[in-house]
Structure formats: structure tokens, C-alpha cells
């Protein structure tokens, strides 16, 4: 059996423009991202220049209105772009997803004046965003956040600490959720904070098992002053805005997970069809063939699930349950597929000479971010059987 080179994913895209877009992404991936991914991840290098290139290419604002610098693309297309980017390097794919998440509040709830002033630079002006919801003592229980914003005339003074912030310390702007009123979800408000605001500082980035090129850090708000014109939505509306953003963000994580899983499968197939044992390719052995078949099936099922949820979103229909299902299934599948890819490569899979060990380390974080998979199960169960008894 000859070596079998991986083939590009055959995508069902709604327009010729979308097909051209995927072709552009694949060209950038092959020329600029994939060749340096392993070396830069090992060195912990954050590829800011890649995000600048993506912005210049119109790829940082794909699901948003072209009147403000976006790409007018449906989520069905945008998510497949994320998948392609994540397959090459998760730091880039997840980074684009987080940037899109950071733009969501202003794009969906900002005034026309706010959108006109800020969105063009955020969507296509080379800026990079961070999303500041989690805190050291409130991750899954986001409604208990403690960062406070206090009125001071026409300004707000923000004080507190945000944790686990992707792009912490390198972002040009932050969407920040802070408490402006009573305890619980009704007392939270959203703000757009410049990355260079006085009183805003970043801690030393976390030392992570994967995604070493993506800085994750605490952000400290020490009396950060922002004008009321940077408040997004009404006072007390912030938690609803955050939940809306997370529904969309979960689809981004699902797409990234399938990208990582697809990369792992491609590497496993290449190895299995080229590696000879007992005088024949190891891909000839039924036990391994069945593993590869299961891996491919999980990937296709996950892709179909996230795309189905995306089409609901594009149609303006409720998609919260489906987003949770997609995030849960796709990230669990990515963990299983990448672990199996290491097994297919045997001892070589456990070395840094092949990328599958990196894929496995990266897949783990996708089961945690944007709401752990235990939280996703709670969300799904509430849709299926109703809220828990109190």
C-alpha cells in the first residue's frame, strides 16, 4: 500500500465567495502558518504578525457587518475558516475565535455611534481583542464575579482582577464584564476598555501544557477610568450580553476542536500508510484500520453538529442548546482523536518530532474554555428536562 497523502476537507459552501475565502485561508496557512507552527509553539512565540496579516486579509471580522469593516459572512462559513486555521495552529484559530468573541458585545448591543467609532478598527484595522469575564474565584459561576465598576460623574472606575484571559497583555482592547449593581446576574454591565488604559496591567502569563504561543494571563484593573460612552448596552444587561456571546463562542471552540482533530487524523493516516511492520503497512492491520475509521467518523459527526448549529444561528433561530451540544461533542471528540493519533504512531507519537503529541496537549484545553464540558452538560440537560429543582 503506497503512502496516502492527506486530502483537503471537501466543504459544502453556500457561495462562490465562500469557496474563494477558504482558498485564501488555505494559501495563508500553507505559506505563513503551518511551516512555523511547531517551532514557534515550542518557543512560546505569539504570532502577532499573523493576526496582522489576517486582519489585512479581511479575516478577523468575517461574521460582522461590512458597513463597519466586517466580512458579511454567515457563521456557517466563518466557522469553517476557524477550522482551517486551527488545524494549522490552534493558537491562531482560537485567537481569531476569541477576537470575534471580544467584538460581539459592541457589534450586537452597542449604539450606532459606538459601532461607527470603534468597530472598523476592531474588525479590520489591525487591532486584537480580549474577552474579560472569568475571575480567580468565578469561572463557571460567572454571575458571582467581583470586579466592580463605580460611577464617577460621566466616567466609570473599574477595579478588580480577571483571570484566564486569552491575549492578556497583548490585546489592544478588552470587553470587560464588571459589577455595577446588586449581587448576581442582574448587577453586571459590559464595558469596552482600551488595552493601554491607565491602571490596566497584565500578570506573568500562565505556564500551560499546550498552546504555549498564546498568552493567557490575569489582568489587573487598578482604578481604570473609562467614560460612560464606552459602556455597552444598559446597566445591568452585561450578563445577558455575556451569555449571548458565549453561545456563539462555543461554536468557535467546536470548530477549532474539529480542526485539531482533523490535523491529528491526517498525521495518523500518513504515518500508518507509510510505516512498515511485518512486511506490510501498519494501516493494513484491522485493529488500526478500525481506529482510523472511528476517528474519521467522530470528526465528520462533530463537523455536521457544529454546522447544523451555525445554520440555526444564521437563520435567526434559537441555537443555545445546539451550541452546547456542539462544543461538548466536538471537544470530547478532539481529545479522543488526538489521543488515538498518538497511539497510532506508537513511540514516535510520544515524541516532539511528530505533531500529534502537541495536538493532544492542545485538545485538552478545548474541553475547558468557553464553559467546561460539565457546564455544557448542565446547559443541555436544562433544555431537555427543564431547570433543576431548588
Strand content: 5-15%
Oligomer classification: single chain
Number of helices, where a helix is a run of at least 4 consecutive DSSP H or I residues: 10
Q: How far apart are the first and last residues' alpha carbons, in Å?
A: 61 Å
The chain-level structural class is alpha+beta
Q: Can I get a quick summary?
A:
The chain has helices spanning 16-43, 48-56, 75-88, 90-109, 112-124, 238-274, 286-314, 320-345, 356-366, 373-385; strands spanning 129-132, 148-152, 155-166, 173-179, 188-194, 200-202, 216-227, 231-232, 276-277, 280-281. With 390 residues, the chain is of the alpha+beta class. The model has no long low-confidence stretch (mean pLDDT 95).
Q: What features would you describe in this structure?
A:
The protein is α+β, with helices and mostly antiparallel strands and 390 residues long. The chain is 51% helix and 14% strand. The chain contains ten helices and ten strands. It has helices at 16-43, 48-56, 75-88, 90-109, 112-124, 238-274, 286-314, 320-345, 356-366, 373-385, and strands spanning 129-132, 148-152, 155-166, 173-179, 188-194, 200-202, 216-227, 231-232, 276-277, 280-281. Strands 1-4-5-8 form a four-stranded mixed beta sheet. The chain has a four-stranded antiparallel beta sheet with strand order 2-3-7-6, with no helix packed on it. α1 packs parallel to α3 (75-88), α3 (75-88) packs across α6 and α3 (75-88) packs antiparallel against α7 (286-314). 49% of the residues are buried. The model has no long low-confidence stretch (mean pLDDT 95).
